[in-house]
Amino acid sequence: MKTDLENKGLSASSFRFAIVASRWNSHITAKLLSGAKRALAEANAAAVDVFEVPGAFELPLAAQKAAQTKRYDAVIALGTVIRGETAHFDLVAENAARGISEAGLATGVPILFGVLAVENLEQANARSGDGDDNAGYMAAISAIEMAAVVSEIGSENTARGSSAK
Ligand code: INI
């Protein structure tokens, strides 16, 4: 039976990926990592390297450094920020989101946001299960798609449906 990815026609066989994953709430983030690896394996990714950082706040720098190597077609940032566990939830979550976005724009390499920013453990568990709604799985699917789009845009003669006269 075909996997969801095969049905969507997504192949990652010519793409290399870095995953940067934070250790905070590691019982949840480990499940995001499994989900991301599962998606990349299903799509036959050419390579997957995993780098660990302390917390979500540190994800942007590690993701940017990975992107700057030009070894990767996309970088997937994974982490878990739970409001109940910190007074500076908003600072950590917002800086992770903004930094990851800026790192992608600065490097031109897709950097995917697979960071859960949730109210409680129940919500975190709901988004890190075994299914295809696992946030790590979904970030990896988006990474494959973005690697393909960026590759297509970056190559010559990619205009589709244009009619230059
Ligand atoms: N980091 C997280 O990834 N998740 C959290 O929930 C969290 N809390 O609760 O504080 C958290 N804090 C650590 C932060 O990301 C940095 O590692 C730390 O501030 C050092 O820069």
Walk me through what this model shows.
The chain is of the alpha/beta class. The chain has a single domain, classed as 3-Layer(aba) Sandwich (Rossmann fold), CATH 3.40.50. Helices cover 47% and strands 19% of the residues. The protein has six helices and four strands. It has a four-stranded parallel β-sheet, sandwiched between helices. Strand 3, helix 4 and strand 4 form a beta-alpha-beta unit. The longest helix is centred in the last third of the chain and has 20 residues. It is globular and about 50 Å long. It starts with a helix and ends in an 11-residue tail after the last helix. The site of 5-nitro-6-ribityl-amino-2,4(1H,3H)-pyrimidinedione has 15 residues, from strand 3.
Short description:
The chain has 165 residues and is α/β, with parallel strands linked by helices.
Summarize the topology:
Elements: H1 4-8, E1 16-22, H2 26-42, E2 47-53, H3 59-68, E3 74-82, H4 89-107, E4 111-118, H5 121-126, H6 135-154
Parallel strand pairs: 1-2, 1-3, 3-4
5-nitro-6-ribityl-amino-2,4(1H,3H)-pyrimidinedione binds next to strand 3.
Using only C-alpha atoms, the radius of gyration works out to 16 Å
Second-tier CATH architecture: 3-Layer(aba) Sandwich
Q: What is the number of independent domains? A: 1
Largest sheet: 4 strands, parallel
Quantity of strands, as a count: 4
> What letter string, H or E per element, gives the SSE order?
HEHEHEHEHH
Annotated CATH topology? Rossmann fold
Strand order of the largest sheet: 2-1-3-4
Which ligands, by name, code or SMILES, are bound?
5-nitro-6-ribityl-amino-2,4(1H,3H)-pyrimidinedione
Number of helices: 6
| Mean pLDDT over the full residue set | 91
Regarding quaternary structure, how should these chains be classified?
single chain
